[in-house]
Write a structure and sequence with these properties.
Elements lengths: L1 H19 L12 E3 L3 E8 L6 E6 L5 E5 L17 E7 L9 E9 L4 E5 L2 E6 L2 E8 L2 E2 L3 E4 L13 E5 L5 E4 L1 E7 L5 E9 L5 E2 L5 E5 L2 E5 L21 E4 L38 E2 L13 E5 L4 E10 L2 E6 L7 E3 L6 E6 L5 E5 L13 H10 L9 E7 L15 H7 L5 H13 L6 H10 L3 H14 L4 H10 L2 H14 L9 H5 L4 H12 L3 H14 L4 H7 L15 H10 L1 H4 L17 H4 L2 H10 L1 E2 L2 E3 L2 E3 L7 E2 L10 H13 L10 H10 L7 E2 L4
Parallel strand pairs: 28-32
Antiparallel strand pairs: 1-24, 2-27, 3-4, 4-5, 5-6, 7-8, 8-9, 9-10, 9-11, 12-13, 14-15, 16-17, 17-18, 18-19, 20-21, 21-22, 22-23, 22-24, 25-26, 26-27, 28-31, 29-30
Length: 699
């Protein structure tokens, strides 16, 4: 009811705004906001046009579609999380002044929508547990189509798949997920395993490598464009994937950030109460536009909503893969003194600039991990209110401004092929997508010419994958690209050959490619070889392993997929399995093997199978610092500095925790036995006043 009243009021305001056609308002932000010199933030939309925005996508004519997650943590209990109060709205700037005058509700009554992508004349969107596609014609949604009923099963909003990023290879990737999607020429949707990546938000650089992060790491990413993972395989991510690209975790906000979940830990805040290290990193963007100075092309922008700032990273290429460093150590690209400035997503826009979604809420932490410390901070400063706000900004450079929108829906196929050579990455990506969706086979010859002769590597890559999307990528062209093109194009040609299972044209080139000076080509050849079956595959892998004895990344990628052994488990409780998925799997992985840069394994861990009171203490109050598991030492920054406990979670009753503990101690071959609720109650009572996490030496 509250949301309905809010929207009715919003409609009234919008009608008045449309009649009077006001000028774009000034930034509705109290306090101080500091942007890097030469830039300014322009308001694109604000409440009541949008409330609690979390995801943004554009159609080919520049219209914005925004997912609003109104029900997220409206109070410390998350009591409205289950209500259908989420929406997807369409915003449009009809007079070209840069401010969206119209706001229309496209889809309503959604529960915590968190991902959005415009493609194939409609919207792909995630509303857990499902992934849906809804066509949009003349501004109206048609009947929605179920793409995946198990897109996000279990877990909680902090640890469920999201992102929906259409990559260069025509597959749609997700953060916090191990599946990718695409629509084929017959209109059927495909689902395929890939490497598990990140936590919230996903992007791609001009070399086609996916970039992502987790809450404590500004930038994780791949050294190589993405690959498929055979179904039913163990599929450990080789050293080429899920790497820490930006190891520097120090931060420089301009306001006290005591309202963070782990603010009680001495290493999280400085003497002025400002955030020392990343703690809630979210939707990353790689700038691919053409309206900022050339030095900014390829820079990575990372929002830190708990610290009320955005970080800019400068990328670099080394023989051991890509890296990134802070652009201006000691200061952030955009920092605010407004505690409710919550930049959660950044993306490239159709006008050559970056767009920032400001969730503009007081509470960011999900109830599952909400500490008693943060509950006190929320009460102290009334961070629960207000709930009816949200902002979308455009970051503009003073010298170049923004580019007028191009109506790509009106462009001919030949014009779209020409856009593949443009400097702006958003235009190139949309042109590729539209050529494939239109089945523009008449452009095949022009695309082959671009793939072979375009002066820019990024144009050659777009042409190659546009041909792949059209089903017109010839094996002979792939071989020619491997022989003649630069390292990026050759690497992509090898990955495309692996996807299309091309052998006859590629195998004769293997010896030459194995001696290529660019690591990216060697790594792509290793991935190609790992997927070859039979004697030819074995011979090539043996040859390459002998040639690259010192290249750890290539050697690991060479290993062919292994079939996963059946699980030997005596799970005592299906409910315990559900609780594990909801509370633990996001950091420790669904199979208990741990997640790189997040948490160590639980499978086979003495901390799980040992004395039950020790495991209960950790689950209740958390754990920080180094820990040894099965003889391997795990320590920050290779894992999160601290694991929050569940003691303050009202859903974590003695009965629930007993189910979780018993499941952990009886799963994955463990035989440690069940633990009753009465024992949980006893241990909880012994440490009722504890707020600090445990350290290994304490236990």
């Amino acid at each position: 009811m509250r949301r309905q009243i809010l929207w009715q009021a919003s409609l009234a305001c919008l009608v008045l705004a449309a009649c009077s056609r006001p000028a774009p308002p000034a930034l509705p932000e109290p306090g101080t906001s500091i942007l890097e010199s030469g830039f300014r933030a322009e308001l694109v939309a604000a409440e009541p046009q949008t409330v609690a925005p979390v995801a943004l996508t554009f159609d080919e004519d520049g219209r914005m579609y925004v997912a609003e997650m109104y029900g997220f943590m409206t109070d410390t209990l998350g009591s409205e999380e289950h209500l259908p109060s989420g929406r997807i709205i369409r915003l449009e700037d009809r007079d070209g002044d840069g401010f969206a005058e119209t706001s229309d509700v496209l889809l309503d009554s959604l529960v915590l929508p968190r991902a959005l992508l415009w493609a194939w004349g409609g919207l792909l969107y995630a509303e857990p547990p499902a992934l849906w596609f809804v066509p949009v014609q003349q501004g109206r949604p048609g009947p929605r189509q179920l793409i995946d009923s198990a897109y996000a099963v279990g877990g909680n909003v902090e640890h469920q798949p999201n992102g929906l990023f259409l990559a260069l290879d025509n597959w749609i990737y997700n953060a916090k997920g191990e599946y990718r999607y695409r629509r084929d020429s017959t209109g059927h949707w495909l689902k395929e395993r890939t490497d598990f990546r990140g936590q919230w938000g996903i992007a791609q650089d001009e070399a086609g490598r996916l970039m992502y992060n987790d809450n404590s790491n500004a930038l994780l990413g791949d050294w190589l464009p993405p690959r498929a993972v055979p179904a039913g395989s163990l599929a450990p991510a080789p050293a080429l994937y899920n790497r820490r690209i930006a190891p520097d975790t120090l931060t420089w906000p301009i306001r006290p950030n005591t309202g963070i979940n782990r603010g009680y830990l001495p290493h999280m805040l400085d003497s002025a109460g400002r955030l020392r290290r990343f703690t809630s990193v979210s939707g990353v963007a790689v700038y691919l536009g053409d309206r900022y100075p050339e030095a900014y092309r390829g820079n990575i922008f990372v929002p830190e909503p708990a610290g009320n700032f955005i970080r800019r990273l400068i990328p670099a290429e080394t023989d051991s893969g890509p890296s990134a460093r802070p652009a201006q150590p000691g200061t952030e690209f955009w920092a605010s003194t407004d505690e409710r400035f919550r930049p959660v997503t950044i993306c490239n826009g159709p006008d050559g600039t970056l767009y920032v979604l400001d969730f503009h809420r007081g509470i960011l932490q999900h109830k599952t991990y909400l500490t008693s410390y943060l509950r006190g901070e929320i009460r102290k400063r009334n961070l629960t209110q207000p709930l009816d706000q949200g902002r979308i900004y455009r970051i503009v450079h003073a010298q170049s401004g923004r580019r007028p929108l191009l109506r790509l829906s009106r462009a001919s196929d030949g014009e779209l092929a020409g856009y593949l050579s443009y400097a702006d990455g958003w235009l190139r990506s949309q042109a590729q997508r539209l050529l494939i969706e239109r089945r523009a086979h008449g452009q095949a010859s022009a695309l082959e010419s671009l793939a072979l002769h375009a002066p820019q590597a990024v144009t050659r890559l777009h042409a190659l994958w546009t041909l792949e999307g059209l089903g017109r990528l010839r094996p002979a062209l792939l071989a020619q690209l491997c022989r003649q093109a630069g390292p990026q194009t050759a690497a992509h040609a090898l990955l495309a050959a692996a996807q299309l299972r091309v052998q006859e044209e590629i195998l004769p080139l293997a010896d030459t490619l194995a001696r290529h000076p660019a690591p990216m080509v060697r790594w792509a050849l290793a991935v190609y070889a790992s997927g070859l079956e039979g004697a030819a595959g074995h011979a090539l892998r043996t040859q390459l392993a002998a040639r690259w004895p010192q290249d750890h990344a290539a050697l690991q990628a060479l290993a062919p997929p292994q079939s996963a052994a059946p699980e030997q488990t005596s799970e005592p409780s299906e409910h315990g399995a559900l609780l594990y998925t909801r509370w633990c799997a996001g950091c420790h992985a669904p199979d208990g093997r741990g997640v790189a840069y997040a948490a160590p394994p639980l499978r086979g861990s003495e901390w799980v199978q040992g004395p039950p009171e020790r495991l209960i203490r950790i689950l209740l109050h958390g754990m920080e610092g180094p820990v040894a598991v099965a003889g391997v030492r795990y320590a920050p920054p290779d894992i999160q500095p601290s694991m929050p406990g569940l003691a303050a979670n009202p859903e974590c009753t003695d009965t629930e925790l007993a189910a979780l503990v018993s499941w952990l101690r009886g799963s994955w071959g463990h035989e440690a036995g069940e633990v009753p609720a009465e024992f949980i109650r006893k241990v909880r009572g012994q440490h009722a006043g504890r707020t600090a996490p445990w350290r290994a030496e304490d236990l």
